[in-house]
Amino acid sequence: MTATIDPSQAGVVSPLLNEHMFVYRLTARGFAPQPAPRQEGTSSIMARITGSNGERTAAAIRQAALRLIHAQGFAAMNLRELAAAVGISPASLYNHMTTKQSLLFDLMLEHMTALLEQTDAALAAAGPEPLARLEAFIGHHVLYHLERKREVYIANFELRALDQPNAARIIGMRHDYEARLIALLEEGTAAGLLSLGDARISAYAMLAMLTGVCTWYRVDGRLTRQEIVALHTRLALEGVLRRG
């Protein structure tokens, strides 16, 4: 996820839009994420072609676009190169997309929609207890960002390539995501379980730490994903739990 600036918070920049995670620039090109599953029904732009061949081609275009944009940037990726990566003619791309801009927006929209929907499902499964819900949010955030490094990188650093209406929609979704964590922290504070000076700033700090896992995680590292999730959950909670 990327960040947003809340005009009501003078001098406060959300950790998700500000390219606060400058370490991404140092290590992101070395990411080796697992391919993300295609999300159905989340895109309003990319055309869906009836039949299995059309669906497979559309999915292949998205995966190739993720790979190329991550490797060389959106501006440097050209549609002829994208078509060659999929094994179709450049003209055939337009059976599955309208413009290069629409393709980028489609990728970001699928990413943010999946993040929001899966987070909501994790919170629903956690039940009503505030700490259980906060743990569910933290665990899902870390695991999602471990599994979708390319999508996260593109969402962080290609937002500037979107036109204003598309960027506004993605930024709005990011605000919605941040608001979920802020609400969880406020719920925990109201229940007497957490001790926070400012829920919004605490949420931004927590998101910066949790998202930073993308910069160093490797599939062949010494810790499993679940061990990394457990470690980050403990670190995040220790910073906000009420003592005594």
Automatic annotation (TrEMBL):
Keyword tRNA-binding: no
Name of the protein in its database record: HTH tetR-type domain-containing protein
Annotated organism of origin: uncultured Craurococcus sp
SUPFAM superfamilies: Homeodomain-like (SSF46689), Tetracyclin repressor-like, C-terminal domain (SSF48498)
Source lineage: Bacteria, Pseudomonadati, Pseudomonadota, Alphaproteobacteria, Acetobacterales
UniProt DNA-binding region: 78-97
Pfam families per the UniProt record, alphabetical: TetR_C_24, TetR_N
Keywords attached to this entry: DNA-binding
Ranges for domain HTH tetR-type: 55-115
GO molecular function, one term: DNA-binding transcription factor activity
InterPro entries reported in the protein's UniProt record: Homeodomain-like_sf, HTH-type_TetR-like_transc_reg, HTH_TetR, KstR2_TetR_C, Tet_transcr_reg_TetR-rel_C_sf
